[in-house]
Amino acid sequence: MNAQVAMRAPCCKKWFDCPECHFDMFGEDHELEKTTELVMACKKCKKVFRKQIEEFEEADEHCPRCDNHYVIEAKTPETEGTLVMEFRHEKGHENKVFKDEREKDRKLQLMQKDFGDLDDSF
Known about the structure:
Elements: E1 5-8, E2 15-16, H1 19-26, E3 37-42, E4 48-52
C-alpha cells in the first residue's frame, strides 16, 4: 500500500487508505458518499487537513504542515511485474554453447602485444 494519508469517509466518519478499503469493509451494504471536500490525515506528521477537490492544484499534492508528498503513483502487482524469460533448447543441444553470428571475431589482446617497436630511451 502506498497510502501517505488516510481519508475520512463522509458517510460513516471512519478513516480509510482508499475507496477500495471502504468497499472491502462494508461491501454493497454501505456505499461511499461522494463529496467535494476531502478530510485527510497525514501519516507522517499525524495532522488532519481539508482539501477542496474543485480547487485542487499541483501544490496540493503535499501535506500543508510537513510537506510530505502524498499524491504518488500506486504500486500494484500489475505495475510492478517482473520480467520472466524462458529459454528452450532443442533436443540434443541442452548443454551446448552457441556463438552469436552477429558478433565480430575478436582476437586475444592479453599478452600478444608487439614490443618490437618500443623505444629503449627510458
